[in-house]
């Protein structure tokens, strides 16, 4: 398969890229590195990425930023970070990508445990994750040509120790299990699923 991985240079993305590249042709994309540069906050940039890549069989997104901070002082501007990047950035990868993907292709997005199991300071990411999960279950019933869509929802990952302090009582999830969830989505037959790794 020809697979575009957006966020291929990230903590999760680089390990997913390593695994999928054993069996597939990979186009690595991120904001500043890889085979193609893309800013997911810009629909025009996403369109340019797909035009550059040409027809493809799968798009995996392991990207999307959000704001981490107290609710009490949160501002509209801070909350739009999660909307513009993690939520609409990933949704636009699908809205635009559906016009370039091959029949029977697949989209795999990334949300996270905060969509249903919140921690302090995480409301913006919780909001984005919940939105992505709901988008995926709805998009699955409308995507044409047997195109599938799933979302991987990881807990805090063992390779991100800087985040552990914000997740009291959470047992970090193994990267092997996270990578396996992306493989299930891309190489398996699931659609409309929130694949939880926690
Ligand atoms: N790590 C965890 O424990 C964990 C747990 C649950 C969920 N998640 C979710 O998993 C996803 C990936 O997390 P991560 O820890 O692997 O992140 P990361 O290490 O910070 O990597 C983020 C990746 O996204 C790219 N990126 C950032 N902004 C972009 C933009 N506007 N346009 C295009 N690419 C952009 C970065 O590219 P550049 O390097 O070029 O900037 C990088 O490749 C995020 O949605 C995160 O919320 C992570």
List keywords for this structure.
198 residues; alpha/beta; 7 strands; 21% strand; globular; binds NADP nicotinamide-adenine-dinucleotide phosphate
Would you kindly provide a written description of the structure presented here, covering whatever features stand out?
By secondary structure, the protein is an alpha/beta fold. The chain contains 5 helices and 7 strands. Helix 5 links the parallel strand 6 (148-154) and strand 7. The mean pLDDT is 98. The chain binds NADP nicotinamide-adenine-dinucleotide phosphate.
- Small molecules bound: NADP nicotinamide-adenine-dinucleotide phosphate
Number of strands: 7
Question: How would you characterize the largest beta sheet?
Answer: 7 strands, parallel
Number of helices: 5
Give the overall silhouette: globular
Q: Helical proportion?
A: 25-40%
Q: What is the terminal-to-terminal distance?
A: 28 Å
Sheet with most strands: strand arrangement = 3-2-1-4-5-6-7
Briefly note the structural class of the backbone.
Answer: alpha/beta
List the secondary-structure elements in sequence, H or E: EHEEHEHEHEHE
Low-confidence stretches are none
- What integer is the average pLDDT? 98
Gyration radius, to the nearest Å? 16 Å
């Amino acid at each position: 398969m020809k697979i575009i991985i957006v966020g291929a240079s990230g903590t999760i993305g680089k390990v997913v890229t390593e695994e999928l590249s054993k069996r597939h042709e990979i186009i690595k994309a991120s904001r500043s590195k890889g085979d193609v540069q893309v800013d997911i906050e810009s629909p025009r940039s996403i369109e340019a990425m797909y035009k550059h890549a040409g027809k493809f069989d799968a798009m995996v997104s392991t990207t999307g930023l959000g704001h981490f901070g107290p609710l009490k002082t949160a501002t509209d501007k801070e909350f739009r970070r999660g909307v513009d990047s993690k939520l609409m950035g990933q949704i636009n990868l699908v809205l635009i990508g559906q016009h370039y993907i091959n029949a029977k292709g697949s989209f795999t997005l990334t949300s996270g445990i905060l969509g249903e199991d919140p921690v302090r300071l995480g409301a913006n990411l919780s909001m984005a994750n919940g939105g992505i999960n709901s988008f995926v279950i709805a998009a699955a019933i409308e995507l044409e040509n047997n195109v599938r869509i799933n979302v991987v929802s990881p807990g805090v990952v063992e390779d991100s120790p800087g985040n552990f302090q914000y997740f009291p009582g959470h047992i970090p999830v193994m990267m092997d299990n996270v990578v396996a969830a992306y493989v299930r989505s891309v190489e398996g037959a699931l659609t409309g699923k929130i694949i939880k790794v926690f």
